[in-house]
Amino acid sequence: MANHCDPAGCARRIAAAAGRPITIHYSLLTIYYCMVINHQKLLICLGAGLLLALSWALPASGALNPYVVQVLMYVGINMILTLALNLVNGYMGEFSVGHAGFMAIGAYVSSIITVAVLPRALAPWLFPLVLVMGGLAAAAAGLIVAYPSFRTRGDYLAIVTLAFNMIVKSVLENLEILGGPRGYLGMPRLTNLVWVAAWVLITLVILRNLVYSNFGRGIMAIREDEVAANLTSVDTRRVKIIAFLVSAFFTGIAGGLFAHVLQFINPRSFSILKSTDMLVMVYLGGVGSLAGSLLGATIFTVLLEVLRPLGLWRWVIGPLLLVLLMIFRPQGIMGLREWRWFEPKFMVKGGGPRHRDSQA
Q1: What are 254-305's pLDDT values in tens digits?
Q2: CB 91 within 8 A of CB 336
Q3: CATH says 68-329 is which class?
C-alpha cells in the first residue's frame, strides 16, 4: 500500500480494477488525486523549512530569551524520546521501562567523542556524525537487550529493560575514567535549537514512514495479536528486534543532544526516574500516535517548568500523573488516533486511489 503520483500508471490501475478501458474521466480523477498529494507534500516541506528558519532566526535576533530557548530545546529532546519509546510501547504493544539506559549510552558515547577523540575545531562540523555514533552505540546495546528478551512472550521485556537501566547506571557510577558518580563534563555546547528541530523532524519523518510501511503494519499486527501475526507470515521476532533497535537508536540521539546542551552529565540523570518521565509523556499524549507523542512531550516538559518553584516536590508529579493516567485515561489524549497531516491522505488499494479517513 503506497502513494502513486504517476497519472498514467494510476489511470491504468484504476481502469484495470474497474474492468473498463482508460477514459478521460479516470485520467482526470487520477490527476486530481496526484495534484492533491503533491500539494500536501509541498505544504509539509514548506512547514518544515519554516520551522528550521524560525528556530535559527528567533534566538539569533534576540526575540526569545535564553531561558525560553533552553525550554524549547528540552521540549524537542523529549519529543524525540517520546516518539522513540512510543514505537515500542505504543505501536508494538510491548512494555519497556528502561529507555533511560539507552539515552545514557548515547549521551556518554557522543560526549567521549567530542571531548577525547575529535579536535575541538572539528566538533561543530562533525556533530551530526557524533550523534549518529551515539545512536548506533545505543542500538548495539538495544540488540543485547532485545535478542534474549524477544525469544519469549509476556512481560519479560519490562523486567529486562528495568534491569538494564539499573546496570547501565551502576556501571557508569563505578567507571572513574568517566567521572564515576561525579559525572562527565567538558563537552562543547553544540546543541542549539536548529539541531534539535532538525532531529525532531528527521525522527518524525522516519518513524512516520516506518509505521505506515508494510513493516509498520507488521509491528501493529503484533500489538493486536502476536499469534495471529505469526500465522499471517509476520516474522514477529525479527520485527520486534528491528523496531526495538530503531527505538534505541533515536533514544541515543536524544541523549547526545541532551549532553551537549547541558555540557555535563552524570549517572543520576539517567535513573529509573528518567524512564518514568518518558513513560508519562508516552501515555499522556497517547499510545500508538505520533501526534500524541509530540503533545505529551510538550505538555509534560512545560508542566515541569511551571512547577519548578516546588523544588524536589515537582518530581512527585511524574509518577503520580502516570498512576492517574493508568486509572482514568489509559489511552491518553490521542490514543490510537492521528492527525490527518501525519497519515497518508490518498492510498491505492485494489488499483485505485481512495481517501483514508483520519480519526482526528
Answers
A1: 999 999 999 999 999 999 999 999 999 999 999 999 999 999 999 999 998 9
A2: no
A3: mainly alpha
